[in-house]
Write a structure and sequence with these properties.
By secondary structure, the chain is mostly beta strands. The protein contains five helices and 39 strands. Strand 13 and strand 14 (about 245) form a beta hairpin.
């Protein structure tokens, strides 16, 4: 199989990411440039925007956040166990909308009640779709605030909510104005037992969904939402343990306007123990996610959403990976999933059959290096420090043996990869229940790009997303990782923050990560840290904490209940329990802002006290930076 070169991957990411993020500004430049009658051009021969001219303020574009629907058993998911077959207990879904700043407005509404199968959308026969149980929708029509902050709780019921924003709430990072929303769905019993939570996300032209499985007892339901007013043509590509998978059906389908389409991936790519899905849309921007469900016989093992990870890049960061104490070989261990995506032609469906357990050998195209970053430094994982990469082969790297705690994973590789991590949590059995086994749940944690600091002009050397987050060629700033996270009603959260080395290239990142003090587990040698070497002692002495982030915690009523600064050393991860900070009120939202050029990443891990062992991770909503003003020059060629 052929692997796309770095240049090709960068080109693809710049097209899908850069177009989606700068289209509004480009239109504004073109429109305002048309006002001129004569004079110089706005663009130099080298493609740079001229600084001469008149500066004109531009209005903020409207934006849309799409929220996942409550989990449901698509098509009557069947375990073939007679009276012990699949069951759907009532699912309660709660949403939270947080506005920080002033002057913004949000309209809320449900997508059309349309959940069709992929075969129906592509013109074939439709399989039966089942609707989810649960409460009816309870949505305010409109939310606005003139104060500094507000938090509004809403109930999306069984449907998928679409939130339309206006004003500078989603775009003005300089003014620290943010809009974020999230939904959390709780099921206390039955096959869907667990907590599935996710941030509501901006629709884009492509998503990388790194997670899920289509093996027996496991289910992955792909949902594509189109909150726009025009239909979208969507193409999906899927990779498994043996490489790119030939789908048993069409890989292209239509998603009508203001609607969503879902399909069971086990129906078009059966018996794939590990999957990664690429969703590519034309005609309209879309949201997509995978509803992932696991059963161990008749025992539910959790449910969660697989949401979009960062585009292929040589550097990826995953914050908020929760690890419980596990032994090597324990299936309940947390792990990291990664793949080198290739769009080469697949062989045949017969070659990708149930024998995928054999994991077809491919020629390695490079290596990835995994850094597990905790509060005390880099936790060395024996066997996971270097991972051989084969094109299109989806791999899981176990974190078994790591000390219990919350971590950040940084992946640095020779070739572009996409990645995510899965946290696994085990609850406490109810002594009054004789049947059902030990309760458990899991959380898929998407990756984010490694940003450069404002002091570096690396021209995208850290990865393809550097350019995708750049407006008109301006250099990246640390403010790109500032943002807001809303906590679904009924959940409590733990905030995880990591400071990253301030570097400009992958080689510099690798060197900086190697300089982080090492923590050796029993897997890496129980005597390794018994006597600290001079080199280790020097590394720990040089590991200096600096002011990295400012955290503001809001109650579910929207008032500020806690505000504090966080000092971190490069590569250090700290976690903060948010429970109880709201006083009589629950915590409703959190903002984290990078300080003094710091580079960091963060997320919120949530649980629901009604479901023992429940866990989910909510990534912050980080809006793309867009200009609040542009320069306009006269042109003699306008209108010709």
């Amino acid at each position: 199989m052929g692997v796309k070169t770095q240049a090709q991957v960068d080109k693809r990411s710049r097209f899908f990411g850069g177009v989606g993020r700068t289209l509004t500004a480009l239109i504004a430049v073109g429109s305002l440039g048309a006002l001129g009658a004569q004079g110089t051009s706005l663009v130099t021969d080298t493609g740079e925007i001229k600084t001469a001219g008149t500066q004109v303020s531009v209005a903020a574009p409207a934006a849309t956040l799409g929220c996942p629907a409550a989990p449901y058993l698509e098509g009557g998911f069947d375990t073939n166990l007679g009276e012990f077959g699949s069951t759907q207990s009532e699912t309660t879904s709660n949403g939270s909308l947080a506005l920080v700043g002033s002057g913004g407005e949000v309209d809320l509404g449900l997508l059309a009640e349309m959940v069709s199968s992929l075969s129906e959308a592509s013109g074939g026969e439709s399989s039966k779709s089942s609707s989810t149980s649960g409460e009816a929708a309870s949505l305010p029509d409109h939310v606005s605030t003139s104060s500094r902050s507000s938090v509004t709780q809403f109930g999306p019921g069984a449907g998928a909510a679409a939130l339309a924003t206006s004003g500078r709430f989603v775009t003005d990072l300089e003014g620290r104005q943010f809009t974020a929303a999230s939904v959390g769905s709780v099921t206390t019993s039955g096959d869907l037992r667990g907590l599935a939570a996710s941030a509501c996300e901006n629709p884009t032209a492509e998503q990388w969904l790194v997670g899920g499985s289509t093996s027996v007892g496991l289910s992955s339901n792909l949902v594509v939402q189109n909150p726009s007013l025009t239909p979208a043509t969507v193409k999906i590509t899927l990779w498994g343990p043996s490489g790119r998978v030939e789908l048993a059906g069409s890989d292209t389908f239509l998603v009508p306007a203001r609607a969503q389409v879902s399909t069971l991936l086990e129906g078009i790519a059966a018996e794939q123990r590990r999957i990664v899905v690429h969703v590519e849309a034309e005609g309209a921007l879309v949201n997509s996610y995978i509803q992932n469900l696991e059963l161990d016989g008749v025992t539910p093992r959790g449910v969660d959403y697989v949401t979009g990870s960062a585009a292929p890049s040589r550097a990826q960061v995953i914050t908020g990976v929760s690890a419980q104490k596990t032994e090597v070989g324990d299936e309940a261990s947390s792990f990291v999933r990664l793949v080198v995506p290739t769009f080469a032609d697949v062989q045949s469906l017969a070659d990708q059959s149930a024998e995928d357990a054999a994991d077809v050998s491919q020629e390695a195209v490079g290596k990835a290096r995994l850094y597990l970053l905790g509060e005390d430094g880099h936790v060395v994982m024996f066997g996971a420090q270097e991972i051989e990469l084969a094109p299109g082969v989806v791999q899981d790297v176990s974190l078994a043996g790591a000390p219990e705690g919350i971590y950040t994973v940084v992946l640095e590789s020779d070739v572009p990869v996409v990645a995510s991590a899965r946290s696994f949590a085990v609850g406490t059995s109810d002594p009054d229940v004789d049947f059902g086994g030990t309760p458990a749940d899991f959380a898929w944690v998407p990756s984010a790009p490694v940003y450069t600091s404002s002091s570096h002009t690396s021209k995208g050397e850290l990865g393809s997303l550097d350019w995708a987050h750049t407006t008109f060629g301006s250099e990246l700033s640390a403010s790109a990782v500032s943002g807001l996270s809303a906590l679904p009603a009924g959940t409590s959260g733990t905030l995880a923050i990591t400071a990253l080395p301030s570097v400009g290239t992958v080689d510099e990142l690798d060197t900086a990560l190697d300089a982080i003090p090492r923590v050796y587990t029993s897997l890496a040698g129980s005597d390794a840290n018994a006597t600290e070497t001079e080199e280790s002692a020097a590394a720990r002495k040089a590991w200096v904490k600096n002011l990295s982030a400012h955290v503001v915690v809001y109650s579910d009523k929207g008032r500020i209940v806690e505000e504090f600064d966080v000092a971190l050393a490069p590569g250090q991860t700290k976690s903060f329990d948010l429970a109880g900070l709201g006083g009589k009120d629950a915590v409703g939202a959190v903002t984290v802002t990078a300080v003094d050029g710091a580079v960091m990443n963060w997320s919120v891990i949530v649980e629901d006290e009604d479901v023992s062992g429940s866990i989910s991770t909510i990534a912050p909503v980080v809006a793309p930076e867009e200009p609040t003003a542009i320069r306009v020059s006269r042109s003699s060629q306008v209108g010709l």
